[in-house]
Each structure stands twice: as C-alpha cells, then as structure tokens.
Amino acid sequence: MNIEELRDYCLGKPEATEDFPFDNDTLVFKVKGKVFALTSLKKWEAGDHSLNLKCDPEKAIEYREKYPDEVFPGYHMNKKHWNTVVVDGSQLSKKVIQNLINHSYALVVSKLPKSQREGLLR
Hints:
- The protein is an alpha+beta fold.
- 37% of the residues lie in helices and 25% in strands.
- The protein has helices spanning 3-11, 41-45, 57-66, 94-110, 114-117; strands at 16-19, 26-31, 34-40, 50-54, 71-73, 82-86.
- The mean pLDDT is 90.
C-alpha cells in the first residue's frame, strides 16, 4: 500500500478528514475531530513507510507478536493504545493493513457520544 492508497482508504471512511494540526509534515486522519491514523510525510519520502494506528491494548500485543517485523509500539504515542505499522514494502497484506485501519477507526468511533456515532460504522 503506497501513500496515495493509504490516504484514499482512510478518507473513504465515513466523515473522515485529513489535517496537519502539528506541523507541515504530520498527516493526520480524523473522524469527528478524533485521530484514528497519522503518518510522517518526510519519513515516507525517506523510505520509512509507516503509519500510527489506534488499537485495543490486548489486540495491540497480539499484532506485535504475530507481525514482529511490521507492527511495533506506537512511535511517539501511548505504547499501550497505539501501534506503528509498516505499510509499504512489508510482509503485511493490503487486507491486513486495511483491517488495522478499520479497527482503529471503529475504536475511535466507539468512544464518540452516541449521537455522533450513528451512521459512522457500516
């Protein structure tokens, strides 16, 4: 999955938006103002094709054990709730990466107030 496919997939989620809230480098994907994915464009240009995704703490451990070369504790994030995932050039299939993005999005949506959740999870 390259950066364009990643961006298209994340923005394909209901009410997903992209933003650069921290600097001109960190591309952040949000739903209802809450972050579900982020990546560094400079790192992509340098060949580090990774993405930070929110994850249930128990599943985060499972993913790290199952994919030790592609899934790591979240870089510059809360290591309990975030994973850094290698998305381009990794052994992870596109489907697995999409499932990780789906999980992150769904986890963030599940924490939104009920009135904001309606229609977001299909």
